[in-house]
Amino acid sequence: MKRDEVPILLERASYGLPEPELADVAWAGGVAHRRRQRRSIIAGLLAFLLVVLIGVLVMTLGGGKSAFTPPDERPSLPGSIPPAGQISGIDFWNAPAGGSERFLDRVSTPLGDLLRVPEKADDLRARPIDNVAAVILAVAEGSFQPLFLSSDSRWARASRALQPIATGQPLSAGSIAPNGKLVAFPQPGAVYVIDASTSNGRLIALPAKDIRSVSWLANSTRLLVSGPGAAYRLDVDLESSQPPEIDGVAASNNADDATTPYRLDGVAGQVALRQYAGNNGWAEVSNPRLPVDAWVGQTFDGGAAVGRMFVASKLPQVPTAESRPQVLAAISPLQPLDDRLLVFGETPAAVPNPGRMTPDRIREPGCCALLGWYDSQTALVQVTDWLLAWNVKSGQVRRVTELEVDGVALGPGLR
Question: In whole angstroms, what is the distance from residue 371 CA to residue 11 CA?
């Protein structure tokens, strides 16, 4: 065969064959290459994860210094104070010594440095308040006049004269509703409710004569009112001319027990945290082991913890000479490991004398009570003539204000 006959033969052999689509060929090649790449990446990741898993197993099960062990203590916040020990398995902190309150770091609030009855106050009818920070009472010829503090530190006076109750001042720590507008005052055989944003008020008669405590539900429209051996739930509608429906609820001899959404009650060995369940009363949530001899004040819910003050029986962890420790309990409704205690004991003598054990300062039973929460981590507690703030996470205690009033109720305008 001659050289010049080769092209002719090749042309005859390819005659009739389809012409290849070069684009399709290139696309198929690219897809195949992409698939090979993906398989390589997945195989590499699986190999890496296998190596990591083997390393973790070796560290966990291999023992020795390289073995992995969980931390013994929970991480603490910056500036945290370590607990002083445990009481009934619950971490506790010692409160600052009596007399040192003035030197604590301060939390700035509308209350200022010193809370006292103001010399001047606006007429609530002329200048109402939308968000109440605090309520105090001024004595006026055998009766009491309500004074409202706004979130911008402005005072307003209501024209209503309130009558004293069995315990004296007709003011409850739970008087201010969560919406910061409605305020309820216990009265003999009644409760007086006023809307600080409109100055409208109403006196609601109750079956029992001895009324001492009030506690609002979260919706700010329902109210629990209680006295020794009597407790009621009522709907509050100041715009309605109809009398509210009043239902009886489970009562106790301590008027401050009836609170929502939680209550702490019972004595040592029978202490219970209970949640309000409407018509079914209070359902038991847990049984914290607290050495309670007597409760003081109301229960307040801070969101992450439920708090109440109690007078303790003798505590070996907090020795006292002439009094009994008073303890603020912050109990978690979800996680017992988050329970905390703040203990108020005596202030020892600065220069102790042989044979003399008299402390410099004694906090008498009833001097201290929880008044609410500044936020989910900070409880606000009255300690004699001071309002203090305790951060339950860090253990730090700071001063809020000095008190020159006999009683105060705190509201959301404080924040």
Answer: 103
What's the mean pLDDT in 379-396? 96
pLDDT at 72: 47
- Across residues 353-362, what is the average pLDDT? 64
pLDDT at 236 over 50: yes
- Mean pLDDT, rounded, of the chain: 87
Q: What is the 3-state secondary structure (H, E, C) of the chain?
A: CCHHHHHHHHHHHHCCCCCCCHHHHHHHHHHHHHHHHHHHHHHHHHHHHHHHHHHHHHHHHCCCCCCCCCCCCCCCCCCCCCCCEEECCEEEEECCCCCCHHHCCECCCCCCCEECCCCCCEECCCCCCCCEEEEEEEEECCEEEEEEEECCCCEEECCCCECCECCECCCCCCCECCCCCEEEEEECCEEEEEECCCCCEEEEECCCCCCCEEEECCCCCEEEEEECCEEEEEECCCCCCCCCCEEECCCCCCHHHCCCCEEEECCCCCCEEEEECHHHCEEEEECCCCCEEEEEEEEEECCCCEEEEEEECCCCCCCCCCCCCEEEEEECCCCHHHCEEEEECCECCCCCCCCCCCCCECCCCCCEEEEEEEECCEEEEEECCEEEEEECCCCCEEEEEEECCCCCEECHHHC
Counting every residue written for the chain, the total comes to 415
How many Cβ atoms are within 10 Å of 290's Cβ, its own excluded? 24
Average pLDDT over residues 165-184: 97
Q: Look up the pTM and report it.
A: 0.79
d(CA 303, CA 412): 14
CA distances from 5 to 1, 10, 16 (A): 7, 9, 20
pLDDT per residue as tens digits for the range 188-198: 999 999 999 99
